[in-house]
Amino acid sequence: MLLFRYLSLELWKNFILILFSLTGLILLTRLVALVVELSSENLAFYDYLRLIIYLAPLFLTFILPLAALLASIFLFLRLSQDQELLAFESLGIPFYKLLIPVFFMSLMVFSLSFLVTLKYQPWSKRAFRSFLFELTERKIEKGILPKKFMSLIPGLSIFVERAWNEGRRFAVVFMVDETSPQERGLIFARRGKLLTKPGRIEFHLFEGNLHLVSKDLQKIQEMEFEEYVYRLDVKKLEKTRRRSRGEMTLKELKTLAARYPPGHKKHLYYLTEYYQRLAFPWAAFLLPLIGAPLGAMVRASGKGAAFFLAVFVYLVYYFLQSGASSLAQAGALSPPLALSLPNVFLAAVALILNIAFQKGKIGRGK
C-alpha cells in the first residue's frame, strides 16, 4: 500500500503538471492566432474567457493521452536513473506490481477522455460555431464598411461604394445571395440603409434590380424595384444552420448514418465519426502502459529523449488512427473494424513490452 501511494503521488503530480503545461501552451498559441484574426471585433474579457471554455475540450481530447503517456515515462525514467527499479527487484517486487498505479491512472484518464470526447467535445464545437455566428451579428450591427466585400453569413456577401452614418446608410450596393439551394440572387441598388432589431437585421434597398439565377444557370428572372427589404432572422438562421458531424452527438450520428444504405458515402461518413469517437479515448488507457517499460529503458538519456520518444509514439498512434479513418470512410474496411485496429496494435505492443521487460529480455542493460 505504501509503494502504491508513493508511485501514485509522483505519477499524478507528473500528469497534472504536464496536462496544465500542454493545455496552457496550446491554448495560448491558439488564442494569439484568434486575437490577430479577431482584432477588429473589439472583444471583451468575457469573450476571451468564453473562447477558452469552448476551445479547452477540443484540445483536451488530444492532450489527455499524451499527458498520461509522458507522466508514465517520466516516472519510470526517474526510477531507473535512481536505481530504484533495481532496488525493488532485489526486494522481490516484480515489475507488474509497479504497473498497478499506472493501471489505475490509465483507467481514470480513460474515463475522463471518454467523457470529454463523447459529451463535451461536440458541445464545445457547437458553442464555438455559435460564438463566431454571434460575432458576425455584432459586426453587421456596427455598420457596413465601404469598398470592402463583407461576408455577412455563409452564402451572403455585400459590397458598398460609399457609406456614412456609421455604416448604416450607403450608396451603390451590390449583394450576392447564395443561401438558397435552388437559386442565386444578385442585387444592385443605388442606395440603402441598415436597420437592426433584437435577433433580426434588415437591409432596405432603393432603386435597384434583382436577378435570380438557377443553380444550373438555365433560368434567369429579373425585376426592378423602388424599395426592397432583405431580412435576416439571425436566431432562426442559428437554429436551422447545418451542423458539422463534429458537432453531433453519437445518437445523431447513428440516426443520420441509418438514413443511407450500407456502403453509401454518407453512411460511411457518419459511422466513421461515430466509431472514431469511441476508439480514440482508449489511447489514454493504453499509452501509459507502454510508457512504463519505455521510461525504464530510456535510463540515462534524460527527460529530453523521453519527451521526444513519447511524442513519437503518440504521433505513430495518431497517424494509425488517421489512416484507419481514411480506410473506413473509403469503404475499404468497415468503420468498427478499421478504427479498432490501432487500439488492438497498441494493446499488443503494451503487452509485449511489459512481458519482455518483466522477463529481462529488454531493458536492464540488455
What is the count of β-strands? 6
Task: Provide the number of structural domains.
Answer: 2
Task: Please trace the helix and strand order, writing H or E for each element.
Answer: HHHHHEEEEEEHHHHHH
Distance between the termini: 31 Å
Beta fraction: 15-25%
**Rg value:** 28 Å
Overall spatial form: elongated
Average the pLDDT over all residues and give the rounded result.
84
Biggest sheet, spatial arrangement of strands: 1-2-3-4-5-6
Give the structural class: alpha+beta
Unreliable spans? none
Sheet with the most strands, sense and barrel status: 6 strands, antiparallel
Tell me the number of helical segments per DSSP (H or I, 4 or more residues long).
11
Helix content: 55-70%
Task: Tell me about this structure.
This protein is an alpha+beta fold and 366 residues long.
Throw out a few tags for this protein:
single chain; 366 residues; alpha+beta; six-stranded antiparallel beta sheet; 11 helices
Q: What's the SSE blueprint?
A:
Blueprint: H1 2-37, H2 45-81, H3 84-90, H4 95-98, H5 100-141, E1 150-153, E2 156-164, E3 169-177, E4 183-197, E5 200-214, E6 220-233, H6 234-240, H7 250-258, H8 265-279, H9 282-298, H10 303-330, H11 335-358
Antiparallel strand pairs: 1-2, 2-3, 3-4, 4-5, 5-6
Helix pairs in contact: 1-2, 1-5, 2-5, 2-9, 2-10, 5-9, 7-8, 8-10, 8-11, 9-10, 9-11, 10-11
Give a brief outline of the structure:
The chain is α+β, with helices and mostly antiparallel strands. The chain is 62% helix and 18% strand. It has helices at 2-37, 45-81, 84-90, 95-98, 100-141, 234-240, 250-258, 265-279, 282-298, 303-330, 335-358, and strands at 150-153, 156-164, 169-177, 183-197, 200-214, 220-233.
